[in-house]
Amino acid sequence: MKAIVYHGPKTLVIEERPVPTAAADELIIKVQAVGICGSELEGYLGHSSIRVPPLVMGHEFSGVVAEAAQGAKGLTAGSNVIVNPLISCGMCDRCALGKPNICRNREIIGIHRPGAFAEYVAVPAANAFPVPQQMDANLASLAEPLAISIHAAKLGFQPFGDLLIFGAGTIGLLTLQVAQNMGVRKVMVTDINPARLQYAKQLGAEIAEPDQLPDLAGKFFSPGGVDTIIDCVGLAATREQAMRLVNPGGKVIMVGLGSDLSALPMNHLVRQEIMIYGSYTYTRAEFEQAIHLLTTGRIQRNPWSTIRGLLEAPDCFKALTEGKAEYSKIILSL
């Protein structure tokens, strides 16, 4: 089978590899669609300590069951599935608390084991969810980032409240649509990329470039501020601006992993009782909620995503990291 293998910073190689075999309780999935994630771009640039080359990345994917091991139950060859790439142990204290997303022994397909930038991938049967046979595989591949957005929104956004979102990439635009499904009253999206901002506008958000944000947000939100901000970028500049713009007593949910260290106005945080939440991945229930939103037609993939072939992956990664990609999301279709 063909696979896209990460060999080091800015080095992706198309290779022939053996089709994986299914271990006990595993499925072999014929990949139909796999999205390029922002975290994988960081890995491609050599900024991710947990992505160790040589590695087949790819964790946002859907496909068809090609083979089921004897111990795998519930799915058979030919079933269309979406795969949850987060594998939790189910036994540690975090799992016992209902927080498998921060399992002490978690593994992620495409990071700790071969991922879906390949024609076939082996996955635990328990992590595969059946979807209607007629469902668009490209839309189905959005389940994983959509679950991230659901988790972040549920941490701090109150239905019928107001929301400011930093970033009009995949997570930002999906967070916008999650908030709309939760009954958001007023929502604004900010980004440095004018084209991506237009996608947010087409999806129904008010938009602002970062230098316009203090003035426009003050006028848009009443009585002059916003109680909840979700930062899907994660740079020092977005984190500090979020701290300055949120209302006293408000919440800042940090999803983006753009940079590790940031200097924040901590005295301001204390005096204004600002609450900061880290938001990482999702629970199994939230992954199922994402699938529900997708299968019931409540999430739009257009106009902000585009489809490319698997063998175009090296060029796509290059374009995305150089800021030359027109779309917020590139999905590789096999």
UniProtKB/TrEMBL annotation:
Q: Which CDD domains match?
A: sugar_DH
- What UniProt keywords apply to this chain's record, in alphabetical order? Metal-binding, Oxidoreductase, Zinc
Enumerate the spans annotated as Enoyl reductase (ER) domain. 8-332
Matches recorded under InterPro entries = ADH-like_C, ADH-like_N, ADH_Zn_CS, ER, GroES-like_sf, NAD(P)-bd_dom_sf, Zn_alcohol_dh
The record's section on Pfam families has: ADH_N (PF08240), ADH_zinc_N (PF00107)
Q: Which residues form the signal peptide?
A: none
**Cofactors required:** Zn(2+)
- By its UniProt entry, which PANTHER family does this protein fall under? L-THREONINE 3-DEHYDROGENASE
Q: Which family does it belong to?
A: Belongs to the zinc-containing alcohol dehydrogenase family.
Q: What is this protein called?
A: Galactitol-1-phosphate 5-dehydrogenase
Phylogenetic placement of the source organism = Bacteria, Bacillati, Bacillota, Bacilli, Bacillales
